[in-house]
Amino acid sequence: MANFRFQGRSDQGQLVEGTMEATSQDAVASLLLGQGVTPTKIIELDAAQSVLNELFKKLKREKIKDVDKIMFCRQMYTITKSGIPLVRGIRGLAASIRHAYFREVLNDVASRLESGTTLSQSLAHHPSVFDNLFLSMISVGETSGSLDIVFQQLAFYIERDEETRKSIKSAMRYPSFVLIAIALAIAIVNVVVIPKFAEVFEQFGSELPLVTKILIGTSDLFINYWWAIIIALFGSTVGIITYLRSAQGALKWGEYKLKIPVVGDIISRASMARYSRSFALMMKAGVPLNQSLALCARAIDNDFLELKIDKIRAGVERGESLLRTHQNSGMFSPLVLQMVAVGEESGQIEELLAEVAGFYEREVDYDIKSLSAKIEPILIVVMAVFVTILALGIFLPMWSLYEVQSGKG
What we know:
The protein is mainly alpha-helical. It has a 3-stranded antiparallel beta sheet with strand order 2-1-3. It has 3 domains: about 1-60, Ubiquitin-like (UB roll) (Roll); about 65-155, Receptor-associated Protein (Up-down Bundle); about 160-225 and about 255-409, Receptor-associated Protein (Up-down Bundle). About 80% of the residues lie in helices and about 5% in strands. The N and C termini lie far apart (about 90 Å). α7 (about 130-145) runs antiparallel to α8, α12 packs antiparallel against α13 (about 290-300) and α16 packs antiparallel against α17.
């Protein structure tokens, strides 16, 4: 089997290109014609090109953004709602999508559909694009005959999730720039400014204040041992990443980041909003309760909270009520627990969970809007401390020298 790069035109005249593994160019042409694509160019890739192509595909796989998935879900909602055959609809979508890898994924999904597999099974061959929650929803939609509603719900869920993440990133942008500027200022001061003053102080040979000695020592460290600092930073970064990727590290970090001053509470509420929204989505689609909780635990992207949700699932499987298991988790406020209790009693748990998600999302939106106002005083204090230490370290010895010179005069 060899790898081939191809270009062609779909039935609608759209350009289609990608790579395919086959025994020969004729086999590639036959496969493309079977997919409704007229090939215009087929080139065999050598071994090195194949390796680079696979590496490039893996890199591109990470670049499929939530915006692309939202548009896909919306378009699939229109396709399934209007009764267009899935294969034809997905082929049409693939032809209109600019993202090369996503186009290859959709063409592969269409090919699998043509071979007789279900949509959820076809999508499951691309786990880096479609997660477990997405696949479970599609499977339920196929079983219940409500794929259009499922795609509509998925579009709404992914969009809300993306909006929350964008809001948090936007709020953290200003503090990040300030911290980067402070770090650059510290480096420039240590490498350029302090050495000049150190030369002046050395000429007089007088006793220097402790603050000045610390600044000069730090500057010498930056200038003479910059390579050691880089190695230490690199080693620390690798060590931290390795630890955070371990089971224990991920669990500890998941718990710690919920306690970070100012932003920890926002992260906690955003996670609860994501959990409530995904849980409501699963319940509305008809996914079994224990399976819904298992999927929501994996979707929350926090190992510490995932462990708590797994305990909720275990409690439900033992026959405990949702209210009791949610109370024992210690994750939710009394108001939210009251809403869960009412939803469980009235049999409208999915509607109440959606309200819970909305409640948390509104709180997160409000907190994010005021986040900059909360962080600014902290940044001002940090900058003030930095400037004060720098000023004392430089000007105290200068005043001492001035007094000495004045006394001599």
